[in-house]
Design brief:
By secondary structure, the protein is mostly helical. Helix content is about 80%, strand content about 0%. The chain contains 6 helices and no strands. Helix 3 packs parallel to helix 6. The protein is elongated, with a radius of gyration of 20 Å. The protein starts with a helix and ends in a 7-residue tail after the last helix.
Length: about 180
């Protein structure tokens, strides 16, 4: 009888471990699909990179070059990449890292420092998508709109790196088994 509760608890942790593994696989697949979509779009733009791949930011002139080559069909493909693949990636990435942090930190105070970073990354990445969509669809490109989108791109890059560091920190804060 005593082994039954222990087995349920073990099965629960084992199942949740599989959810995290599936989350990492899903995140990798979504990132790959999004990257392939953006690479295809860049080829269609004559080799010009789309703004969100400029991890250290960009200016009005750069966005003007991209916008000048953007046709209605390419703009639609760009939006599809943002609204589907990149949003799904952001959500899967944040949830997977949050589940991993929750599983390893197990209620310790460290957890509240680990979870917000990937969630902020997802929010900034989605906000960047909307800012770039508004920017590319605008009749006139303003320096303020470009600066806002560029700032979100740089912030997204920083938060992504911090999110990956969070994974390492989470693994480093794992409680040691008691003898």
């Amino acid at each position: 009888m005593a082994s039954e509760p222990m087995r349920k608890r073990t099965d629960h942790w084992f199942t949740r471990g599989w959810v995290i593994i599936v989350g990492f696989i899903l995140t990798a697949v979504l990132a790959t699909i999004n990257w392939l979509q953006l690479a295809s779009l860049e080829r269609s733009l004559g080799g010009v990179s789309v703004p969100e791949t400029q991890l250290l930011g960009y200016g009005v002139d750069y966005v003007g070059v991209v916008d000048a080559q953007m046709t209605d069909e390419l703009l639609e493909r760009y939006g599809a990449s943002h609204y589907l693949w990149d949003v799904l990636f952001s959500i899967a990435f944040a949830l997977t890292l949050a589940m991993l942090a929750r599983r390893i930190a197990r209620g310790r105070k460290t957890l509240w420092f680990l979870i917000p970073i990937p969630v902020l990354y997802a929010a900034v990445n989605i906000a960047e998508n909307f800012a770039l969509e508004a920017l590319m669809g605008a009749d006139q490109i303003t320096s303020q709109a470009v600066m806002f989108a560029s700032t979100l791109t740089v912030l997204k890059t920083i938060l992504f790196v911090l999110s990956l560091a969070t994974v390492l920190l989470t693994l480093g804060t794992r409680p040691r088994p008691r003898p």
